[in-house]
Every structure is written in structure tokens, then in C-alpha cells.
Amino acid sequence: MWRRPRHSGRRSPVNEPQTERETIPVVEERATVRTRARITGTLRARTVTHEHEQAIDADLSVETLDVRRVPMDRFVDHPIPDRQEGDTTIISVIEEVAVLTVRLKLVEEVRITRHTSTRKATERVTLRRQDVIVERGDSPSDAEAS
């Protein structure tokens, strides 16, 4: 707001220029930006597990041992160390027999043969898989309006 200056009651002569001062206010506007959080909707995530059975074929190895005792009934000069012949392990069993002299008599051999066989086996197993389902909910302002 501006005002005119008051006159002292004297008038200035006509030829003199009058200088009157006026004050003009300058206005400045400023903008302020603010944000506020507002819920516009909701999400719900859940998992669903699906199960199905599946047959699985596998090769299984089975080892069996065949033990066979072979009578030898003969004398030997010294102990015979265990030995391997192919898949068969041979263990010599000896005993001391009193005679005029002590001699080793081969009483028997124990022959252990390893046999390996393969067979098909089918087992039923349960396998699981999960999916995620995402659902959108109404925004709170939409729910209040309805």
C-alpha cells in the first residue's frame, strides 16, 4: 500500500516541478511442494505347492559271495599266502601234524568268488513344485467410496 506524502500547507509555484515520491510494494510469490504417503492399493502374495508322483528307474548293484570249501589233504613245505585269481580270493588253511618231522599239510582251500549282478528297480517318489500367486486388493479410498 502506498501513501502520498503530506503537504506542509505551502503550495509550490506553478513553474516549479513537483517531485512526489511514491512507494510501490514488490510482491514475491514462493511455491512449496510437499508429498504425503497415501495407500492406493494392496498386494497379497502366497505360494501354492503342487505334488505329483513320478516313476524313477535306477540300476542297483547287488554283490553276493559264494563260499566253497575245496579239500586238499596234502603236505606243503611252507604256508601259502592268500592269493587272487580273477574274482576269486583263495585262502589256504593249514594245520600242523605230528609226524617224525613237522610238515605242513594243506587241508583245504577256501575259495570266495564275488558275483555282481544288476537289476532294474522302479520306485515311486513324490516331487513338489511351488507357484506364487499375487493378488491385487482394492485401495482404501475405493473401499470407502463403495
Give a quick set of tags describing it.
single chain, 146 residues, mainly beta, 4-stranded antiparallel sheet, 1 helix, 4 strands, YsnF/AvaK domain-containing protein, DUF2382
Overview of the molecule:
The chain is mainly beta and 146 residues long. It has a domain at 56-120. The protein contains 1 helix and 4 strands. It has one helix at residues 140-145, and strands at residues 42-76, 83-85, 88-97, 103-137. The radius of gyration is 56 Å and the shape is rod-shaped. The model has no long low-confidence stretch (mean pLDDT 81). This is YsnF/AvaK domain-containing protein. Residues 24-132 form the DUF2382 domain. Residues 1-22 are annotated as: Disordered. Residues 1-10 have a biased composition (Basic residues).
User: Can you give the mean pLDDT?
Assistant: 81
SSE series: EEEEH
**Poorly predicted segments:** none
Termini separation comes to 52 Å
Shape: rod-shaped
Helix content: under 10%
SS class: mainly beta
Tally of strands: 4
DSSP strand content: over 45%
Across the major sheet, the strand order is 1-4-3-2
| Largest sheet entry | 4 strands, antiparallel
Total helix count?
1
Q: What is the fold's blueprint, element by element?
A:
Layout: E1 42-76, E2 83-85, E3 88-97, E4 103-137, H1 140-145
Antiparallel strand pairs: 1-4, 2-3, 3-4
Give a short synopsis of this structure:
The protein has about 150 residues and is mainly beta.
